[in-house]
Design goal:
Blueprint (H helix, E strand, L loop, with lengths): L2 E2 L45 H15 L3 H21 L17 H4 L9 E4 L11 H8 L7 H24 L6 H16 L8 H4 E3 L4 E4 L2 E3 L17 E10 L2 E10 L5 H17 L6 H12 L3 E4 L2 E4 L1 E2 L3 E6 L9 E2 L15 E9 L6 E2 L5 E4 L12 H13 L7 H6 L6 H9 L3 E4 L2 E2 L6 E10 L3 E4 L7
Helix pairs in contact: 1-2, 5-6, 8-9, 10-12
Length: about 475
């Protein structure tokens, strides 16, 4: 989810006791975390110890029963009991493969509770004049999450959910589908894999969508989602669709996006933006000046061009939307990573989490607010309690605090909770500065745009591209 540049922001069984058989069918350990997307796996030994058990049972009968008819009868009885035990010991197959659509909670796919580590990238050798300052050391010591293994594992769990849901989206989203169906499919997939429907007060604050699922087409660069009351939009073969969604656990959001197109005309546009994002990731690190990252992104982006309908267009970086750092329950936490070179000397610091994203366009590269509303977010400075003459505003504010806090949400999410007749109350909250409103961001009509984004964690000696997958 991109952050608007400050200067352009308009809005902020049977009894077997007589002949028991030891059952070792405890199952094998789950596959390595880096192979989380392998095919079906059957747990336990397929052959078992049935032959040995049968032999032991027959021998026991021979030792305790005389020969002749009695012995034959006893052997038949033992044989029958052995068969019954074989049927009892039938093994159940456990699948480690995600369903389509994705609905198996990832906690069941990873019973060990450990989730895959993202891509680890070592830092480039640092310049001698970029030593960390005392102020930076103080800020580092305040980042308690760096010493919490649960934090890292939960973040990797959220990233694994993002990978699985976006893989399903890439495989199933096709021209002719409505954007509402695609968005709801993504939302439902995230909730199912988290094993949290998010319908009880407070449950969305524990885990859920990090912000409204964005499906922005063509010259709509960012921040569009289907909402109740809007005319449904059908995906066309000529569309370039940015898919931007987030997954959070305890407020820490994995923010990652990709672009889909169904016409090879736009391949170079997508390649330019993906290359730019990877360049931004490669150049990011502890003590790195953000302006240097921005300059590297701009240089790569502007080296591409795309031919559309016989006309050649340079790929331009979007100037008034940026990447950003992330904190708990804060998708845009204060530091911005523009896609053009600036004079800002702000540095990235150890322990920080960044959403490194880039937007490229064939238009002007300067965005303006489009019609409609993308979503709402409670202001970080909003009071805990709010007084208003409108009962709907007071009720709505309580719903926001109970279910979203400062996480950005949309009308679709409100109505899923059963909230009705909320527009007047929402307008009151917005007018009083308690809630911020986010509009779609668009470039010139007829232009096309693309977006790619990953979430990275900056460690002392390396960075983890936590949302990296096989796709990008």
């Amino acid at each position: 989810m991109g952050s608007k540049s400050p200067e352009h922001n308009g809005h902020p069984g049977n009894d077997a006791s007589s002949c028991s058989i030891s059952n070792n069918n405890t199952g094998g350990e789950p596959r390595g975390t880096h192979l989380s997307r392998d095919g079906d796996v059957s747990l336990g030994d397929e052959n078992g110890d049935d032959d040995d058990d049968e032999g032991a049972t027959t021998a026991g009968v021979e030792n305790h029963v005389g020969g002749g008819t009695d012995k034959a009868t006893a052997l038949c009885t033992a044989e029958s009991a052995s068969k019954n035990k074989k049927r009892k010991k039938s093994k159940k197959k456990t699948s480690s493969k995600q369903s389509s659509p994705p609905r198996v909670p990832v906690s069941k796919l990873f019973p060990s509770g450990q989730y895959p580590t993202g891509e680890i990238q070592k830092y480039e050798p640092a310049d001698e004049n970029t030593a960390r300052t005392t102020a930076a050391e103080t800020r580092y010591l305040s980042r308690h999450h760096l010493h919490d293994e649960t934090f890292f594992n939960n973040y990797r769990k959220a990233a694994e959910i993002h990978r699985q849901v976006r893989r399903w989206t890439q495989e199933t989203a096709r021209p002719g589908q409505s954007l509402t169906d695609i968005a709801v499919g993504i939302d439902d997939g995230v909730r199912a894999l988290l094993d949290n429907a998010g319908l009880e007060p407070g449950s969305c604050l524990k885990s859920g969508l990090g912000f409204p699922t964005g499906l922005s087409l063509n010259n709509c660069v960012a921040h569009w989602t289907p909402n109740p009351g809007q005319k449904d939009v059908i995906l066309d073969r000529s569309d370039v669709m940015k898919v931007d969604f987030g997954v959070h656990i305890n407020g820490w959001i994995v923010d990652s996006a990709f672009t889909m197109s169904f016409d090879p005309t736009y391949d170079n546009l997508l390649t330019a933006v993906k290359d730019s994002t990877n360049t931004g990731i490669k150049n990011s690190g502890v003590d790195v000046r953000i302006s240097d990252v921005s300059a590297a992104i701009q240089e790569v982006m502007e080296s591409y061009e795309v031919e559309i309908s016989g006309k050649t267009f340079p790929v331009k970086p979007v100037r008034n939307i940026t990447g950003h750092n992330i904190k708990a329950y804060q998708i845009h936490a204060g530091k911005s990573v523009p896609f053009i070179k600036t004079k800002d000397q702000t540095k990235m610091e150890e322990g920080e989490v960044f959403a490194i994203e880039t937007f490229g366009t064939t238009g002007r590269g300067v965005l303006y607010d489009g019609p409609g509303v993308y979503g709402y977010g409670k202001s970080y400075s909003a009071p805990t309690k709010f007084s208003s003459s409108l009962a709907s505003a007071r009720s709505l504010y309580k719903t926001i605090n109970d279910n979203f806090g400062t996480i950005v949400f949309c009308r679709r999410y409100l109505e899923r909770l059963g909230v009705q007749r909320y527009l007047a109350g929402m307008n009151d909250l917005v007018n009083k500065g308690v809630v911020d409103v986010y509009e779609p961001l668009i470039d010139t009509p007829g232009s096309y745009s693309a977006q790619f984004e990953h979430t990275i964690l900056l460690g002392e000696k390396s960075k983890e591209v936590i949302s990296r997958g096989d796709d990008y």
